[in-house]
Amino acid sequence: MTKVLVLGANGAIARLVRDDLKTQTDIQLTLFLRNAERLNDVDASREKVIDGDALDQTAIDNAMVGQDIVYANLGGKADQAAANIVASMQKNHVKRLIFITSLGIYDEVPGKFGEWNNQMIGQSLEPYRQAANIIENSPLDYTILRPAWLTNKNEVDYETTQKGESFKGTEVSRKSVATYLVSLINEPSVDTRASVGLDKPGSEGNKPSFY
Ligand SMILES: NC(=O)c1ccc[n+]([C@@H]2O[C@H](COP(=O)([O-])OP(=O)(O)OC[C@H]3O[C@@H](n4cnc5c(N)ncnc54)[C@H](OP(=O)(O)O)[C@@H]3O)[C@@H](O)[C@H]2O)c1
Among 22, 44, 84, 104, fewest CB within 10 Å belongs to which? Predict the structure, then answer.
């Protein structure tokens, strides 16, 4: 039975992924988060909850034992977390990593939207840039996700771009990102050693529609 470690398990996308994995698969989940009392409906037959901080190497090391796939849904100091995760995966011979960052980490967003995006979030992208660099320089089978601006729309509608291609679109629903993530967890050989942009087809513009 596949075992997936979810880091940042109370994140909005992580919660959608958890729900989908529980209804669509028999995967065993380890849900790692700060303030774990926030999680409810824990199914003890297939879910283990760990209260921890991704910046705590020992906590990550302990959570890593016996995992097949690591899915990191972390904000904040993503660079330090990435360093901990990569080190721990190598120690524990866990190969498959899925790690969410953001559009814009490679200055891959073209045109006026790219300029606007850089003004809005350019500063806060640095930890994600560093995290991507750490992951790409590791021997792991990684997929780095770079979602567009996130919405809570109840829709699954997305397209992907690969590293080296210009980013398309301005927005994408969390539900779409979760759907892509679940597809990767179900087919772990897809998009390995890849950094994938996610956007909603036709959402090109100078800003996301809700801004
Ligand atoms: N908003 C956008 O338009 C946009 C666009 C592209 C990418 N992104 C990125 O996509 C990521 C996923 O989106 P989302 O909606 O799921 O975000 P989210 O709800 O903010 O989830 C991020 C999670 O990271 C956790 N976290 C941060 N540092 C941690 C640490 N050191 N240890 C453990 N957990 C930690 C947070 O935990 P706590 O709950 O304990 O704080 C939070 O639950 C976000 O991190 C965001 O930066 C966002």
Answer: 44
Which residue has the least CA distance to atom 43 on ligand 1? 11
**Cα 23 to ligand 1 centroid, rounded to whole Å:** 23
DSSP 20-78: HHHHH---EEEEEESSGGG--S--TTTEEEEE--TT-HHHHHHHHTT-SEEEE---SSH
How would residue 40 be classed by pLDDT, with cut points 50, 70 and 90? confident
Q: Is 102 close to ligand 1, i.e. is its CB under 6 Å away?
A: yes
**C-beta of 66 in contact with ligand 1 (< 6 A):** no
SS3 209: coil
Q: What is the pTM of this model?
A: 0.98
Q: Where are the domains of the chain?
A: 3-199
Residue range 55-83: mean pLDDT, rounded: 98
**Ligand 1 pocket, residue 53 CB under 6 Å:** yes
- Which numbered atom of ligand 1 lies nearest the CA of 53? 32
